[in-house]
Design goal:
- 2 copies of one chain form a homodimer.
- By secondary structure, the first copy, chain A, is an alpha+beta fold.
- The first copy, chain A, has one domain: Glutamine Phosphoribosylpyrophosphate, subunit 1, domain 1 (4-Layer Sandwich), CATH 3.60.20.
- Chain A contains 4 helices and 15 strands.
- The first copy, chain A, has helices at 16-24, 59-66, 129-144, 152-167; strands at residues 3-13, 36-42, 45-51, 71-78, 94-98, 101-108, 173-177, 181-186, 191-196, 201-203, 210-212, 222-227, 238-239, 244-249, 252-257.
- A 7-stranded antiparallel sheet of chain A has the order 3-2-4-1-12-9-13, covered by helices on one side.
- In chain A, strand 14 and strand 15 form a beta hairpin.
- The longest helix of chain A has 16 residues, at 129-144.
- In chain A, 48% of the residues are buried.
Chain lengths: 262, 262
């Protein structure tokens, strides 16, 4: 299984603390040695870093951990290969431009019959079920909406329907963003925490590192972090419910779409 | 004016030597302080690094210079902003997926009336004339060919026609790649050099650095480098002719399409 890490914040925030614990799982204390990647939506644009090597040995991971890139939305992924070789083209996150925005996607899980998911505007570059599912999902949104719908709720409903259909094919835990919203969908496992004033201290589960957020924040900051498993051992994380789609913006939950009735 | 750097090679090759001279021009000895970027096509896929800060001060530039990424095709760009703010979304290279391949593009020059170039499949994310022209160009190719044409010459002819039309709008020096081919089009200024056995020594024009390629190559290696201006001061570089499109593969020129008759 792969692992996911996401962030949504109302101020440009660096993710160095969470990332330090997360990347430890990439071949350090975890079995996820088949590459890792991270995407940042900064005020000025989008950038991503990907490496097909275990994150604990990656010079790029070291750079990212030490060079605080401040952003509103982050999506990161460490990989344990199931479908597709260990190579750069199969390394998450994946991204495509739609409606003049860069959409970024990372997936945890495995799908059955993914080869039959129809494609339209977007074609996979690598060989993974994950990228195929991403191209399908984005293509379906674009076929449905030639431009962003006036009511975002319409978009969220269609997205939720697509995620639910994907959950029918296997395990589909998802992080997706257009740079403004962070969409998180839970098929089996995804946890989140929102940090705001009064800020406290946190201690990583996977590394000997603590941080006192009071020293790094202002009263107005709202920073939410999502992960496959809790990253700290002294805070309480919320578990998402299978079938649930959360829409985040500026660190807050904008909408919560529940599982379809079965 | 911005500057371009490209490479096509028949073996995975690092570009550290050329890059050292090139990045010196980014706010060091040159006026190009408005960001820089580089894209690598490695055997396993595509990755790009972009930074809106001057390359001489960029920790990412330092990483790339010191961490030899070996690839067949490289496209790099340092920017002096003309159209569009200094921000990440306006930093070259730009990339989009077409036909299941990642296409990468960097442009040197300025265009008139670029806002009127029609768009179809691809929309710009930033505000530059360069990205708009890229979206136009790729969209036109995709409108013409739903999938890669059987005869690549057909594609090259259409691409050359599009470049020639763009040259009618101003200065359009171009590096473009699908990961296999490197397309280089000259409107005003682009030079190239092909290094092969017997290899010799080279000395950078912009930094006190020499390299003896004999120590880093085998007899079979063919490595071609393209740049806005020669990067070394003891080798002879070839100047491209305005209106000329060169198609490179594995370090060799596959095709040479001359300027349209006026």
């Amino acid at each position: 299984m792969c692992e996911l890490l996401g962030m949504s914040a109302n101020v440009p925030t660096d993710i160095c603390f969470s990332l330090t614990g997360f990347l430890e799982r990439g071949g350090g204390c975890g079995p996820h040695r088949d590459g890792w990647g991270i995407a940042f939506y900064e005020e000025g644009g989008y950038r991503e870093f990907r490496d097909p090597h275990p994150s604990v040995h990656s010079p790029i991971a070291r750079l990212i951990r030490d060079y605080p890139i401040k952003s509103h939305v982050v999506i990161s992924h460490i990989r344990q290969a199931n479908v597709g070789q260990v190579r750069l083209a199969n390394t998450h996150p994946f991204s495509r431009e739609m409606w003049g925005r860069q959409w970024c996607y990372a997936h945890n899980g495995q799908l059955q019959g993914w080869q039959d998911l129809p494609l339209s505007y977007y074609q996979p570059i690598g060989e993974t079920d994950s990228e195929h599912a991403f191209c399908h999902l984005l293509g379906e949104l674009r076929r449905r909406f030639a431009s962003p719908p006036e009511s975002p709720r319409e978009l969220w409903d269609v997205l939720h329907g697509l995620c639910e259909r994907m959950r029918g094919l296997g395990v589909f835990n998802l992080l997706l963003s257009d740079g403004q919203h962070l969409y998180t969908y839970c098929a089996t496992k995804l946890v989140h925490i929102t940090r705001r004033a009064p800020f406290g201290k946190a201690h990583l589960s996977d590394a000997e590192l603590s941080v006192d957020f009071v020293e790094h924040t202002t009263e107005q900051d709202v920073v939410s972090v999502l992960a496959t498993e809790p990253l700290t051992d002294n805070e309480s994380w919320h578990r998402m419910v299978p079938g649930e789609l959360l829409v985040w913006r500026d660190g807050e939950i904008l909408a919560r779409l529940g599982a379809f009735e079965g």
